[in-house]
């Protein structure tokens, strides 16, 4: 008894580890408004990619995202997930296979945490035992103890815990696509940082295709595989990896969005191992060392903090493997430093996260 | 303990009334009214009218409230709310007598008048309750793939339930008091005792009727309060 559109949705749903999203010439115009909210937006998100939409408030980034699950209907253009035109699918069925996390979280206050997470599986008609198993699994995934939290109500949780439940709830039916609208925007900086770190770890294992809207450029650099910097009417000013955008902003608009300290922001993305380390003897033994797991920014931070000209770099077993100086860090960013020039210079633009 | 204050007060008041009445020597007119059979019959009529009114109000005002929050037309919303406001603002006596003149006397007319009179609290609380549902909650429900009906039945109405129930409770108390005027159009109820007591200058009859109405109002309010607590979704 499946209608053709049902099978299309099932095909999208089956692909739980990330689907390709294509937006083609998408425009949204509201009646009685002279300019479009979104104009001719085209973009392709590859399976498993985490794409960040960054832009000032009112630039249309959220509108663009919400057209993918048809919370907002596009005026023209087409949106395809794994080649299927979402505009031809039943919007409610479609949304059950797209994870959706918003800044207000929107947990249902009259339902327990377990019931909140079970909403979409229930809509999809899963069996009780399957739902229960899935709820426990998801709570563990987001680091909340199922025995402790399942039967609590949202108001009994802190903001950070609520947002984790929000993410767990969006992941409930293992959707191939996730849409996230400033999900960590309302949390305090410390909670936000830990949520971001956990989210990155989670995404590494899940590999969903994620559209993530934020106005925080640092968050975009930290999380994104690629960043789309958007201006008025959701125009794409630059769409590239964080490292490339930091190294070569396409125009003044992008530069102004990056703000001050672009070089320092780039260092966050580059591991210490990318630098040409000096001999161990350059650094005096001290309490402050740099681990090879650190980023160059961590290394710079340690250098500034210690005041020493050079610091020891140690491996996972705390064994010294070299030393690092400010000059060696600058060299990675392409600075012309005679001392370390030519020696293992890795182009900064090629440095991944 | 606070929970049981109302029932205790009601029982005490009724006890005092009984003791006072038994200390009086009733004349033949008073005896015709102040006997168990008559009082039970009037109370039954009164309760019947009140409960039927509240049930009708719930069945009519809650869907109307839902429909009004869904309509985009401000005109429709303003018109319906305006009518409901007039229904409540007009003295119940006026509504009931007007209806009796235009239509007929008796139970049905009294019922209609009482429904009109106690419609507004449920209507406005239904609307307020639904409007108070957090926009993020509504959007995430929609974004998770709930149909509009599922959003209403599984999310909005349960969250709005405490506010709607509070409106219903107000409306029940309204209708207990207003039901006394059913006597003017021959629809029975405890109003009979109050009006008889007044016209025949028999104060024990008047006071018994008035005290019984007050006790019914207090008791129903108490029961509605308990129901509100039991029906309120946990977590809200």
Topology record:
The complex is a heterodimer of chains A (353) and B (236).
Chain A: H1 4-14, E1 21-28, E2 38-45, E3 50-54, H2 61-68, E4 76-81, E5 84-85, H3 91-95, E6 98-102, H4 113-117, H5 119-123, H6 128-141, H7 146-149, H8 159-171, E7 177-181, H9 189-206, E8 209-214, H10 217-223, E9 226-231, E10 235-240, H11 242-247, H12 252-258, H13 262-269, E11 290-291, H14 296-306, E12 310-314, E13 320-325, H15 326-332
Parallel strand pairs in A: 3-8, 3-9, 6-7, 7-8, 11-12
Antiparallel strand pairs in A: 1-2, 1-4, 4-5, 9-10, 12-13
Helix pairs in contact in A: 6-8
Chain B: H1 5-23, H2 28-33, H3 36-70, H4 74-89, H5 92-102, H6 107-117, H7 119-131, H8 135-143, H9 148-178, H10 191-199, H11 203-231
Strand tally of chain A is 13
Extended strand count of chain B: 0
**Count of helix runs of chain B:** 11
Which blocks of ≥5 consecutive residues of chain A have pLDDT under 50? 341-353
Estimated structural class of chain A: alpha/beta
Give the structural class of chain B: mainly alpha
What's the number of structural domains of chain B? 1
Report on the structure:
The complex is a heterodimer of chains A (353) and B (236). Chain A is α/β, with parallel strands linked by helices. Chain A contains 15 helices and 13 strands. The longest helix of chain A is centred in the middle third of the chain and has 18 residues, at 189-206. In chain A, 42% of the residues are buried. In chain A, helix 6 crosses helix 8. The model of chain A is unreliable at 341-353 (pLDDT under 50). Chain B is an all-alpha fold and 236 residues long. Chain B has one domain: Orthogonal Bundle (MetI-like fold). Helix content of chain B is 80%, strand content 0%. Chain B has eleven helices and no strands. In chain B, helix 1 packs antiparallel against helix 11 (203-231), helix 3 crosses helix 6 (107-117) and helix 7 (119-131) packs antiparallel against helix 9. The longest helix of chain B has 35 residues, at 36-70. The relative contact order of chain B is 0.15. Chains A and B meet through helix 3, strand 6 and helix 5 of A and helix 8 and helix 9 of B.
